[in-house]
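[recover] target loaded
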């Protein structure tokens, strides 16, 4: 039994670095398309470079989702539809159990966000504005297909904004319920009044070989796109 609260270290340093790096890159990407891009001389290039960074970050997160620390792994926070439905029903009547990692609904929201971000950033590689920018993979598809991809790129941009809005709303809702998800992504730790469903006694371990390999691959992908 817990006396008052229990502090659980959930997010390793690399997960937190990924999260805040992704936030900054997405913010730059949005800024350079929804404004005049000042003070950047060629905002479309900054937009593209932010996309390259996002791709590198996503590559890292996918790898880390399989070989990373316990709570960072997809297998830890992805639940089958049946368990997700049970959690959703319990949440509606405010009887949902706490989770150290993402809860069942939150886990699938993470996957939706990652997929939408992946499509947005990868589709940008096939685009061109015919003046200042031509994506690294534009030559593989040509103008007509590129324009079709551009339409999907714009459509997914709106969908991504909806997902981000839902994500922010969830953060606020959790805060009102006493769970500070933002602070947890800063410190790496969460506090619980009752043991979370996915609590493990072992310490979070970040294996240096896997971490180094994941970072090296991510940096390599970003560098190749940047200087292609």
């Amino acid at each position: 039994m817990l006396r008052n609260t229990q502090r659980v270290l959930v997010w390793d340093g690399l997960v937190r670095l990924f999260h805040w790096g992704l936030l900054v890159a997405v913010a730059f990407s949005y800024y350079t398309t929804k404004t005049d891009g000042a003070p950047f001389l060629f905002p479309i290039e900054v937009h593209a470079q932010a996309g390259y960074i996002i791709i590198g970050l996503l590559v890292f997160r996918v790898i880390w989702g399989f070989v990373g620390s316990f709570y960072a792994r997809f297998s830890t926070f992805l639940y089958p539809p049946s368990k997700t439905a049970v959690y959703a029903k319990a949440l509606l009547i405010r009887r949902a159990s706490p989770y150290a990692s993402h809860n069942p609904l939150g886990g699938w929201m993470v996957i939706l966000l990652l997929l939408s971000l992946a499509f947005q950033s990868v589709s940008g590689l096939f685009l061109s504005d015919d003046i200042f920018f031509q994506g690294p993979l534009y030559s593989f598809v040509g103008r007509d297909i590129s324009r079709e991809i551009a339409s999907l790129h714009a459509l997914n941009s709106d969908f991504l904004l909806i997902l981000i809005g839902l994500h922010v709303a969830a953060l606020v809702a959790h805060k009102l319920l006493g769970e500070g998800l933002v602070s947890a992504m800063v410190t790496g730790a969460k506090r619980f009044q009752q043991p979370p469903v996915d609590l493990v006694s072992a310490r979070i371990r970040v294996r240096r070989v896997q971490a180094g390999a994941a970072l090296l691959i991510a940096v390599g992908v970003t560098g190749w796109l940047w200087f292609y």
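[recover] notes: The chain has a mean pLDDT of 91.
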